[in-house]
Specification:
Elements: H1 7-17, H2 36-44, H3 64-74, H4 97-105, H5 123-133, H6 137-142, H7 157-165, E1 172-174, E2 177-179, H8 188-202, E3 208-213, E4 229-240, E5 244-248, H9 263-273, E6 277-284, E7 289-290, E8 296-297, H10 299-304, H11 307-321, E9 326-332, H12 340-354, E10 360-365, H13 376-382, E11 385-388, H14 415-425, E12 438-443, E13 446-451, H15 467-474, E14 480-483, E15 490-495, E16 501-506, H16 509-521, E17 526-530, H17 544-548
Parallel strand pairs: 3-4, 3-17, 4-6, 6-9, 9-10, 10-11, 11-12, 12-17
Antiparallel strand pairs: 1-2, 4-5, 7-8, 13-16, 14-15, 15-16
């Protein structure tokens, strides 16, 4: 995000712009006030100050000019003073002229008419300006028609909903009704509350970085020295009618999740670098296994459907865990059908109880609406980490119509879907309560297709170039790279040696950073990467450096 500064630079800019008026952040008129602690933080962060008498005036109203001034300073924007004023009521002679013009240039307000600098700012205006300052206008407008938590919000619904989802605003409970009271003028205390909430999340950093170590990962094992934990994809849960659940760590049965021939090379490195490593166990709820009665179900359903099956699987898992820091359960494709959601929760609860206290337990979950078989609330209570696999949004190839110009739905991770996944896993009623347990997962993937000179699909077939190939294509002089401001994903249009033209969506430093920053606004500062061995570190295509910058 262009608006983002390094935390140190931002803090320095804020302190320079707002010198603290008191040596200790206490004001003579805030003691006992409901926002006393928040106001102290606002001054400590350099967001707001009191007057020369040591008063903050928490219940006085804030005007629009003062609010945009604070915004400009908080985001570290260079003040712009164009020759021609954009607003009829904010001339170049007005004290806030440069701040109003700067906020306008950064999309905080629309571009002309009246700015009303001396009007009291409303709660609604304050929320909308902050959402736009963060760069989330497209998200807010995308969800404008969705259900709003406040019964009294009729305008700017998407903005207010987004502000509520990320905890920027709360609301006022009157009886059984939650109100926002959008037209009320905002006091300085209310402004401080909203600004502190945004600032703390906006300026936070990744505090947990995790990577998956699986097939062809050894080439990037050195990257794990900057990680807090890794999960080794060396096991798959299986089920047979005569043997019940087993954990396969070999290549038998076509298992790609197996222990390599010389696992000690990786294990020794992790131990040397003091990086905890879990055993990751994959399981499918989308495959088909035959039960003793001749019926079919999935591996995960068979393993979790009865207490006896769960106990057998858990016994095997606990035995395997002895050589690792713990377990990472990656059971995928779960849907809330035939009791699978509850059965999986029971499985994880019983596994946690059976694991030694010193062993960690991570779980991978997929977002809805299709994969709705994960009880986020319950899993967050029993697991040390919940890894949200908000990726693999590729539409079915049947949606790729010959002769059509594909929409942004073919982006690898459309931004509005990442937002939806984050709102789901942080839902105050059904989501993970402890957000420090959540890690957003990112996957280095590509989605491409052949196109003609008009950008129309030539063949209903996906192409998914390896990232090493993609890096070469990105370096071609005739390749055109575009970053979608709405999907927050890049795509490249290039021509191969045979003269065939392709459009490929992929992840880059910008798209990964955008997702990290969005998760941060939800209070999530954990990141998980699929997978080592596939993280771009090329001179012209480097995602790893961008991740480290967020630490």
């Amino acid at each position: 995000m262009k608006r983002r500064l390094a935390a140190a630079a931002l803090a320095a800019a804020l302190c320079a712009a707002f010198p603290l008026s008191l040596s200790a952040a206490t004001f003579r008129d805030t003691k006992g006030h409901w926002a006393e602690a928040i106001i102290d933080k606002a001054e400590g962060y350099g967001l707001m100050v009191g007057d020369e008498t040591g008063a903050f005036h928490p219940d006085e109203y804030l005007n629009r000019a003062s609010f945009v001034t604070v915004l400009c300073q908080m985001f570290g924007w260079t003040v712009e003073k164009p020759q021609t004023p954009s607003y009829i009521d904010c001339p170049a002679t007005h004290w806030a002229y440069g701040y109003a013009e700067t906020a306008r240039a950064h999309g905080v307000m629309d571009g002309s008419g009246a700015f009303r600098p001396d009007d009291q700012i409303s709660r609604e205006e304050m929320a909308v300006m902050l959402v736009r300052a963060l760069g989330y206008q497209d998200l807010a407008e995308h969800y404008a028609g969705d259900e709003n938590p406040f019964s009294d919000v009729t305008e700017n619904r998407g903005y207010i909903t987004l502000a509520w989802q990320i905890g920027m605003v709360s609301g006022i409970q009157e009886g059984n009704t939650l109100l926002f009271k959008p037209n009320l003028s905002a006091t300085r205390a209310e402004a401080a509350t909203m600004l502190v909430q945004v600032y703390e999340r906006y300026s936070s950093k990744l505090d947990w970085l995790h990577g998956f170590y699986a097939v062809s990962s050894y080439s990037q094992i050195s990257l794990t020295s900057d990680m807090d934990a890794v999960s080794l994809g060396w096991a798959r849960m299986e089920y047979t009618a005569d043997g019940g659940p087993t954990v396969n760590t070999t290549s038998a049965n076509g298992n790609g999740w197996n222990i390599p021939q010389q696992p000690e090379a990786a294990a020794n490195y992790f131990q040397q670098e003091h990086v905890p490593y879990n055993l990751c166990v994959f399981g499918s709820a989308s495959d088909a296994v035959t039960l003793a009665d001749g019926t079919t179900t999935s591996t995960v359903a068979a393993v979790t459907s009865s207490a006896a099956s769960r106990a057998q699987a858990i016994s095997a898992l606990v035995g395997l865990s002895q050589s690792y820091a713990g377990l990472t359960i990656d059971f995928e494709g779960l849907k809330d059908q035939n009791g699978l959601k509850d059965n999986f929760t029971a499985f994880m609860t019983e596994l946690r109880a059976a694991l030694p206290a010193g062993k960690s337990l991570y779980v991978c979950v997929q977002p809805g609406p299709y994969m709705d078989g994960f009880d986020f609330r319950a899993l967050g209570q029993v697991c040390d980490k919940v890894i949200l696999m908000a990726h693999d949004y590729r539409p079915p190839v049947s949606d790729l119509k010959v002769g059509s110009v594909p929409s942004e739905s073919f982006a690898v991770t459309p931004f509005h879907k990442i937002y939806a996944a984050l709102t789901e896993i942080t839902d105050p009623d059904t989501g993970v309560q402890d957000k420090s347990k959540i890690a957003l997962a990112v996957s280095m993937d590509t989605t491409g297709f052949q196109i003609d000179d008009a950008g129309k699909v030539v063949e209903s077939k996906y192409v998914r170039p390896a990232l090493s190939t993609l890096a070469q294509r990105l370096a071609q002089s005739d390749t055109v790279i575009t970053y979608s401001a709405t999907a927050r994903n890049p795509y490249a249009i290039y021509t191969d040696e045979a003269g065939l033209r392709y459009k490929v969506w992929y992840e880059d430093a910008r798209s990964i950073t955008d997702k990290i920053e969005l998760a941060r606004m939800f209070g999530i500062n954990g990141l998980s990467i699929w997978r080592l061995g596939n993280i771009p570190t090329y001179d012209n295509y480097d995602i790893w450096s961008a991740v480290l910058e967020q630490r």
